[in-house]
Amino acid sequence: MATHKTLGPAKFNNITVKGDFEFREKPWTICFYIKFTATPTKYSEQYFNGDLNKFHNDLVHKIGLKVLQENLSKAVIPGWQFHLANYGYDHSPKEFRFEKPLDFQVNAYYIAPSEFEDQNDWKGLERPFQDIARRIAKLPNFTSDHFIEFSP
After folding, report:
1. Three-state SS for 78?
2. Cβ count near 64 (within 10 Å)
3. CA distance 37 to 100
4. Cis before 9 (ω within 30)
5. Range of the domain at 62
6. What pLDDT tens digit does each residue of the chain (152 aa) get?
7. Cα-atom radius of gyration of the chain, to the nearest Å?
8. pTM surpassing 0.70?
């Protein structure tokens, strides 16, 4: 029997979210892989006068780990717990360059209610996965603005 289970994907106009977890590890901690392409707008280069450091500092307020963790914790649904978030691979806001799209990934970990484990109901996780993914897609961290555009 496979111990690795997948959920999703959930596709939105700004991000795609996939999930997985290890079936035999307790508690069931679902990793939400939040994938997107972020493209700095032409306006961002003008606004920051071509200064990438200023642009990167601004991005930290949108997709820095501290603000991501704070906002991703608000995407939980009753019974679930937010655990932590990190960047996929070696991603960081410092990778961004003006007018160049960048594929980016954020990983968010949520602990499922024990009822799913107790009933061995891993298939039942799909609906709450979709609910949390929908909440994540609505967070301001992944919403396009005048400096950066998000696409799945």
Report:
1. coil
2. 18
3. 10
4. yes
5. 4-151
6. 558 899 999 999 999 999 999 988 999 999 999 999 999 999 999 999 999 999 999 999 999 999 999 999 999 999 999 999 999 877 888 889 998 999 999 999 999 999 999 999 999 999 999 999 999 999 999 999 999 999 99
7. 17
8. yes
**What is the distance between the alpha carbons of residues 14 and 44, in angstroms, rounded to a whole number?**
19
Q: Which two tokens stand for residue 109?
A: 């970990």
Contact present, 149 and 41 (Cβ < 8 Å): yes
Could you tell me if residue 48 is left (phi over 0), alpha (psi between -120 and 50 degrees) or otherwise beta?
alpha
In three state form, how does the secondary structure of 21-74 look?
A: EECCCCCCEEEEEEEEEEEECHHHHHHCCCCHHHHHHHHHHHHCHHHHHHHHHH
**By three-state DSSP, how is residue 20 classified?**
strand
User: Which tokens sit at 92?
Assistant: 């960081």
Domains held by the chain: number = 1
With residues binned 3-state (H G I as helix, E B as strand, rest as coil), the percentages for the chain, rounded to 5, are 35, 30, 30
Rounded to whole angstroms, the Cα distance separating 75 from 89 reads 23
